[in-house]
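Data card: per-record layout.
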Amino acid sequence: MPEPAQSPGTELPALTAPPMARGEVISLAEAVARRAEKFGKTLDTLASGIAARGREAAESLARADFPPEAQAEAGRKAEAKARAEVLPNSSDTRWAMLRELQAAADSLSTTALLFATPQAVLARAGLGTPERTNYLAQLEGSGVVQLRNMAAFAVATKNAPLGAALLTIIDRMPARDRPFSAQELAQRLVGEEAAEVTRTIERVRATVQRAIVANRDFERGRASALDKVKVALNSKETN
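The structure for this 239-residue chain is written out next.
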């Protein structure tokens, strides 16, 4: 018997990576930055070696009193030959480093979803703890004035588990009867945390994208104007 079709928006997201806490995301971002820097230095070293081959060829002809045009042509040919050798010889190393960086970015997919909004973060605060369970029991049957006062108290004391319990309570109420905005409560309690994690994840993704573009430029032997614009825009958005 076929399963009934699900209503739009009821499907659970496909989460393939374990979630991380804020500290873990920050530590991973620092590690990615170090690995990306190492990758950039690797490309610089390879590019310097290619350029050196070109300079050597040009200088050799200069010492033999060849005209500047011949020197430049010899340099270009020597660089092209060196690049044709270096690209395949360095491919495994470069792509292994890129795969490592991409894997780090991919490992943040679940965390990005769980920190997408302050409400998503607050909803998990104190989950499974006696503290949150007790708050829920105490708040059951509370009137709108008491709920509003408790929301103000949660913000004043930075009590996220209390805020999470309040979210659960008002989620059961018709939207028009809710005594305060769930979005505002979440923003004031955990908005900074959600924003920091989101910015850090985007910074990791931008770092990895810059490494991919740098490798693409290295393989082409020139930079792409379009890629440079995309990287610049991504960097601006994550700052």
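Known properties of this structure: The two ends are 53 Å apart (CA to CA). The longest helix spans residues 22-63.

See the next section for split statistics.
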